[in-house]
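seq as requested:
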Amino acid sequence: PYTTLFRSMAQITNHIENFEMNINEDFVRKAQELEPALHYKTVRPAQLVSFQPSDAPDKPNDWDLPVHNRADRVFDWIPCRMQPVEALDTMPLSKGSSVCLDFGTHHVGYISFRLTPAGSPPDAPAHIRIKLGEMPCEIMEDTASYQGSISSSWIQEEYLHIDEMPARISLPRRYAFRYLELKVMDTSPKYQVLLSDVSCDTVTSGDMSQVDPLNENVPEDLKRIDAIALKTMEDCMQSVFEDGPKRDRRLWIGDLRLQALTNYETFKNYDLVKRCLYLFAGLTQNEHHVGACLFLRPAPMVDDTSLFDYGLFFISCLHDYYQATGDRETLMQLWPAAYHQAELALKRLDGRGVVKDSGDWWCFLDWNDSLNKQAGAQGVLIYTLRQALSLARLMCSETSGAESVKQLESWIETAVRGALEYLWDKELRFFISGQNRQVSWASQIWLVLAGVLDQESNRRLLEHLVKEDPPVGMVTPYMYHHFIEALIQNGMKDTALHYIRFYWGQMADLGADCFWELFNPRDRYASPYGSRIINSYCHAWSCTPSYFIRKYFN
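struct tokens:
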């Protein structure tokens, strides 16, 4: 049977000892000058709602066709007893009673509401609990039982004591949600409370008016998938491209790379990508290594998390940005930082030209504990070195350009030869990874993207991969993106479209307003953190159906 295990963040994150942040003040200043204007809009709940568990069994999918006709099921919960918002006017709430408001779709913003006493004058504070959820499971499942690997403080739950009423309550935190539940923990026997005038001031730097509509001949199911992907993108566009507006609210470079690709086909906010590039180049780790993620508040700083593949993806982000904009000034300023990431990564090669399979570093690739990452890391290295070579050739007019070209060509030759001689298994017709010669989806996909084999051989490998279906599979939209990209780059657009419908289409059928951080079709309760209630259900790396649909199927 298919099984995926996850490790805790404490186990898998490579924290740098004796960490020091390097600051390029010129780059940080450029980034600050590019800070975007934020757009605000007031929205109100669409209806009152309650939920009951779905009786539908969670059967494994046969990996052939998407599941349609969800019959209003929202990720294993069925909305019921829906009422108009006006019903709040005649719904006094006493100790133990609650009400859930449905805002109709996903929003990111700031909540406010009014509480009014009903009955006798309040002779004790009103003690209330507010829960906000992107999905019904966050409202309906017991948050007190959470024992996951990341902090429960990410759960969107607030307890308030209201001493004086009537009162207009404005919550100071920013939330990402569709559903808001208010429960009265206690008042006194003498009075109840009425909830009214509930609103959310939404915030985003995304401007949907800049996004062109799809062509009329695009199938309706792809239009629906595109709309959800665009909403995901919009809600993750804040002062930077956030990974998720609920959690972690950071600028992660793996997410940025995919957001930027989607942005070039949709919102076309090139300055926001440029701002993120300058932040990553201006706030680096030891040895000027580009960090995996950045914090923006209270002041911009790089985290001490170091990832092999994410450091290399600074090259990809710069390469893709230049391809989209032709901005040579930014290329020239940031090229040394990009080239340096290649130099740092090459230290991980052994004498065979293969990335070392050691435990003192971490490469992400996917949320899959059983995945050996040596071969995938080799693919990422070659893939990004090829992009660096493309940029170096553009820089040939500069003093160091020709020397960089020769060095990169040599590095690529070494890494490709290492992959072919030591990672390719002719009998299995798969790339293998690690001492146990593991065969995984991620290893094949990344070495296909790296162009280690010719296109015809890549096609045969991908067909073989789909047919054999190795048990070490894919569990995130992030990894599925790279699978779709590999299919398209090797002339398999029909198969790519099938998997867009299969994967993102299933999330849409399960009630997604935005696409999720993680979706395992064979285990809907999967979470890298120990509970799905803390998963992010609006997550940047899942926005790329809009990139694929608009670039290849529009």
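The chain has 15 helices and 16 strands.
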